[in-house]
Specification:
The strands form three sheets. An eight-stranded mixed beta sheet has the order 5-6-2-1-7-8-9-10, sandwiched between helices. Strands 13-12-11-14-15-16 form a six-stranded parallel beta sheet, sandwiched between helices. The chain is built from 14 helices and 16 strands. Helix 1 packs across helix 14. Strand 9, helix 6 and strand 10 form a beta-alpha-beta unit. With about 375 residues, it is α/β, with parallel strands linked by helices. It is globular, with a radius of gyration of 22 Å.
């Protein structure tokens, strides 16, 4: 099958571990001929959102990608918000896909995909959605004009041709139903996951010991892991402030990732503490090494793809409780924080560490079922229903 991935509603970031990167990779590993059609929106130096020049090249997995420009007949700020591109139809026509997978539908250029589908009704179309009530529509204009009028129009133009809309979280499927009016029977959940393609699980213990030795962590230390894209809403500062209050002498916290501008001052102000290990940026294909080295993931703020990745590699976790995140809990593998406070984080950590049977139950459940539920290979097959 020829599978075209359209990443035109937002960014496509080269060499990251986002779903836009991993699904095409999995589809290629499954034997499909794959191409990516993307916007010029990217991350500059892996931290700051920006724009690159239109170009055609290959990803690190050898998948052809074409970044297409915005139209030039309207002001820049307008076309970037409405997402109107040149040559969408021409690029699709040249590739002649059997399947089109659209990563979010909030771009007016979706009409060019619709045009192609009208002429080629045998093409199967699937779409996912990364938009929810937490990350979008946070003011009146955004919610009622941008989403309920403009982006809803985009979704409705393509809806008749889409076989299934996948929320990457349950609350995102709900967003598509409540804000864009997509029918319930066209909605499903396609979670984020873990990429096992270059990992030998039989070597897990050796990797764990090697990383711990490299970071100066003793075998008996109980290691917490957190990180990702660190902004204020991730509440990493609350987690760091809770460490001294935890009743465990051999606790360590690994925090990885690049702090946002608003968090840089907090990280600069940290007093040297041998319980806290701060790492800079970690390549997405190396995050699993830190997960293997850890005993518990702790994520006290907004959602990150690291959440499902951690569970997929068998790491029990503590998450901030959000409505519409039910897929994370498969019967005792994780705990949820109801508040955003140092006190509750400390209480939960003390409970997990001191109640050995609780932690062992979480670990066993996560080890048994996490890799099955969050395998990106399985998720990629579901995405295109093959």
């Amino acid at each position: 099958m020829k599978v075209l991935h359209c990443c035109l509603a937002a960014f496509y970031i080269d060499d990251f571990g986002y779903q836009e990167n991993i699904l095409p990779k999995m589809h290629k590993l499954q034997g499909h001929e794959v191409k990516i059609l993307a916007s010029t929106e990217n991350y500059i130096n892996k931290t700051k959102k920006g724009y690159v020049k239109p170009a055609s090249y290959f990803t690190s997995e050898g998948i052809p990608i074409t970044r297409i420009p915005f139209v030039s007949y309207l002001p820049n700020f307008l076309v970037r918000k409405l997402r109107i591109y040149e040559n969408i139809y021409e690029n699709i026509s040249n590739f002649k896909p059997d399947i089109i997978f659209i990563h979010d539908c909030q771009f007016m250029g979706v009409t060019e995909i619709r045009k192609y589908l009208i002429q080629n009704p045998e093409v199967k179309v699937f779409a996912d959605c990364h938009t929810d009530f937490i990350n979008s529509g946070k003011n009146w204009i955004s919610k009622n004009i941008l989403h309920k009028v403009i982006y809803k129009w985009c979704v409705k133009r393509i809806e008749p041709y889409v076989l299934k809309f996948y929320g990457t979280l349950p609350l995102r499927a709900a967003f598509y139903n409540q804000i864009y009016g997509v029918a319930i029977n066209k909605l499903d959940v396609l979670p984020f996951g873990a990429d096992y393609s270059n990992i030998n699980f039989n070597d897990k213990e050796n990797i764990r010991l090697e990383i711990r030795e490299k970071l100066g962590i003793k075998k008996e230390d109980f290691v917490l892991l957190s990180g990702g894209k660190i902004d204020k809403r991730k509440n990493i500062d609350l987690l760091i402030n809770s460490i001294e209050k935890v009743r465990h002498k051999s606790i360590k916290l690994i925090v990885f990732g690049k702090p946002s501008v608003e968090m840089e001052e907090f990280f600069r102000s940290l007093v040297k503490n041998d319980k806290i290990i701060i790492l800079d940026w970690v390549d997405s294909n190396k995050i699993y090494e830190l997960i293997f080295a850890a005993d518990l993931g702790v994520f006290p703020g907004t959602h990150s793809v690291i959440w499902e990745q951690a569970l997929g590699f068998g790491l029990p976790c503590i998450f901030k409780k959000w409505e519409g995140m039910e897929h994370l809990d498969f019967g005792g593998n994780c705990l949820f924080l109801k508040e955003e406070s140092v006190e509750e984080i400390t209480s939960q950590l003390n409970q997990v560490i001191e109640k050995e049977h609780l932690y062992e139950g979480m670990l066993n459940r996560c080890t048994e079922e996490g890799p099955q539920r969050f395998s990106y290979y399985n998720i990629a097959e579901k995405a295109i229903q093959i």
